[in-house]
Design goal:
This protein has helices at 2-13, 23-39, 43-59, 64-84, 91-113, 116-124, 129-158, 166-194, 214-230. By secondary structure, the protein is mainly alpha-helical. It is globular, with a radius of gyration of 22 Å.
């Protein structure tokens, strides 16, 4: 959860050219990178795409240890699948490992350079109003709940509450967090009503407006397409 907080902070406070690009342009670039990595059978192209994804992720100024932590989950499951599906050819497990990690690096770059409201705005247009608003509010409330959990656990450790009756303490802690979440939701709804909430949260409308960093996104997209042409990585093509 600390990783999620660091990524959210980097997206909101970063000052790279990627942060000044429009959200829709970055979404298209990330989709292009993921589609090329998933559908190509060319191992040289897959390696080049993986290195490109690393370059994008590191250029977002996200700490390398955060990127490695985000890679841990897909890498673990991909390694298990690679071992289970190995056919004696070294290229097979390499492809299995490179595809999800490349997609994860692209996602890390995207979420580390795009604030959540801008990233969520185009997606919310496809969802029902209540679902979209619920997801938006839940994401923001998540960090408050995480902070409350950390403070509560710290207080328990300082007062020795984790040494005796650990199961009972865990139940009481969970109950405290549930009550806190209910109280916070009531205060949040009351504040929204006072500020004129009428049933729909108005999402960001500037996610599709061109930004000064769009030329970097366009250059990266042209670079990926050039790699696909030079290395024979047409989707579904021969290795």
């Amino acid at each position: 959860m600390n990783v999620v907080g660091r990524v959210d902070l980097a997206a909101a406070t970063g000052a790279t050219p990627w942060h000044r690009a429009s959200a829709i342009a970055k979404l298209l670039l990330a989709a292009l990178l993921v589609l090329l990595a998933v559908f190509t059978r060319s191992l040289p192209l897959l390696l080049a795409l993986h290195l490109s994804a690393w370059a994008l992720a590191l250029s977002s100024r996200l700490p390398a240890r955060i990127i490695v932590a985000m890679l841990g989950y897909p890498l673990l499951f991909a390694a298990l699948f690679a071992l289970a599906s190995w056919d004696g050819n070294a290229a097979t497990p390499l492809r299995v490992l490179l595809r999800p990690t490349t997609a994860c690096l692209a996602a890390a770059w995207l979420v580390a350079t795009t604030p959540y409201p801008d990233l969520f705005a185009p997606v919310s247009r496809l969802l029902p109003a209540r679902v979209a608003d619920g997801l938006f509010i839940t994401y923001r409330a998540l960090f408050d709940l995480l902070g409350r959990t950390e403070r509560l656990l710290r207080a328990l450790r300082l007062r020795g509450g984790l040494r005796k009756r650990p199961l009972a303490t865990a139940g009481e802690t969970l109950g405290t967090l549930v009550l806190h979440s209910f109280g916070r939701s009531e205060r949040l709804y009351a504040a929204m009503r006072l500020r004129g909430h009428s049933g729909r949260i108005c999402g960001c409308r500037h996610y599709a407006q061109p930004g000064p960093g769009d030329r970097w996104v366009a250059a990266a997209g042209i670079g990926l397409l050039t790699l696909a042409l030079l290395l024979g990585g047409r989707p579904g093509g021969a290795p």
